[in-house]
Amino acid sequence: MNVTLLVLIFSVVAMMVTCDLQLSERGAGPGCPLGQRLAFDINTTLEESKRLNNEYFDCLNPEPGMPCFYYSHVFLPFFVTEDTVIGENDRFLDSYTFKVVGGGRTTGSVRNYSEEEVLKFNSLSDSESSQQTLVWTYDDVPESVLLTKEGFIVMSGASNRVRWLCQRNSPCGDLTPVNLLDPDFFFVIEVSNKETARNPFCEHTLRFELHVHGFPLDPVRGLFFMQMTMTVIQTILLCYIGHTCWRLRQKTVYIKKRDGLDEQEGSKQFKAGDAMVKVGSTLRSCFLQLYCIIYRIVQNPMLDHFIMLVVLFDTSTLMAQTFQGVTVRTGWCLSAVDSCLLVFYVTEAVFKILVQGRTYFRNPWNDLDFFIVFMSLLEFTLSLVQSAGGFGSRHASTLFRVLKTLKGARVFRALRLLKAIRFFKGLQAILLTCLESFRSMSSIIVLMFLFLFIFTVIFREMFNESDPEHFGNIFRTIFTLFQILTLDDWSLIYMTSRDNGAPHIIYFLSLYILVELFTFLNLFIAVLVDNFQLSIRKRKLCKSQKSPDVKEGETQSSEKAVEDLEMSQAEIEEELHKEALRHASSGSKHSKRKIELICRHLQLLAAMDQHMQKYRSQACLLDNLVETFFTDRDEVTRSDVVE
Predict the structure, then answer these.
(1) pTM of the model as a whole
(2) How far is CA 232 from CA 46, 142, 292, 314, in A?
């Protein structure tokens, strides 16, 4: 009997030890109830994430049995305590620590981090820090954060919304895609209440893997793409400058050979001068030549055509980003392309500001381009500062909220489409006509709002009882009258008041529609159409009266800067001519008077050649004038016949 009792006691002890070992392997502490463990509720987490983010994007290649979440979405984990004995589940509402203890790019490369790495990626050593770890942070950063002794953030079942950060020093920072699809990452998450448990005798620890996809482009890598694009532009520009300087060098050598002054004698002449003057003149000549090259690039129509192609390509990428499937799968590549295209816009603006100076901002289209480029740079700068994490410790949470709010500046990227207006004269004429029409339509708008206020008071006082839903207060009445102005469901408004004993509302509705819609709104459209007709007439009149002389004046004014820049080169050539004549006169047998007569004769020949060129130019202009006159007369005759 005693032996049987001892065997029974040893069996019970062995079973208890076995259960404790199994529970400890499943994450339950030794003091927890028998059969209780902590588990990750995947189904509830997916449902709540869909509800919170209003959408859900699964991985393109999901792993079986592993939940997959989008990087930009808020991650809302749910945990339950499972009772394996009675088969019941209860939501886990105790405080716990949320730590990333492992990860990898693929399931085969997932590794567990060391204690130092776990502390670095998840811990906040200072309570006044930026309140965000290297990998994740709260969705809404609280004013105060509870920390453990090691600096881990304490979370609870009521506030556990996680937003992924993956800063540059984190294991998931600066990921690059294997193909055109966005990069993804596998996290190993550990949830534990060892340091925060209400019941110190029941501790839970749970580890599970999480698949996150759709990682965006790191702003620092975006800056790298911008630098590479700028390097390509600089290389092309240097090649163009080298080609231009080589042609100028060939021209200078030809002039020296033509005037009988070889390179060695020319170098002797230059060596005889002051060294500082030589260096200064060389630098000034190089700067003027560079300025002249940039001017020619800006004035070249090929630049406008190239920028137009860039704008169209940028438009196609912006349209592609409006589709959620494209943004989720290829957002990284589209962001890289956007960073490269921004360099072209900045380069164009800088070149034009260097050439035109203050006159650049006198053109409203240039102001629009500059505003678009500035807002794009502001958006990129905000994302770069946010990724750097270089905020002050005390004001980190405030700056984080501000940067999150100002991130809405990315909507200004859509304004790049307006850059296309600069390349189409017809669109410019329509837009300018609309802007000019608002000046003359201001009085009509004032009258419309005045009568709208009058009718608002009338409808509010007379029909607030019969139809309080539409005329209950002044704001509902204004909204209802705007709705009637579009003839939207005005009959339903009439039937509602009629059924409630106010059929006479039809008279007021008819009067309001007659005054506001058929009178003022049509007058508004009439003014707009009249301004369009005036604009078309002005364009025809300017086209018919525009002569080739005016065109020549515009061409001369546009080339004036180039002529000023080439003046320095002409002065250099004139000095070379003088040096050549002096060299010829030093070894010549002719007298000084005879040499002066020869120089005067050469000057007269050059002046005669210049006058002959002017005569040919005037003859060509006269021919163009006669041809333009007969062409415009034929066009006017055809338009009269058509009318």
Answers:
(1) 0.63
(2) 46, 46, 21, 19
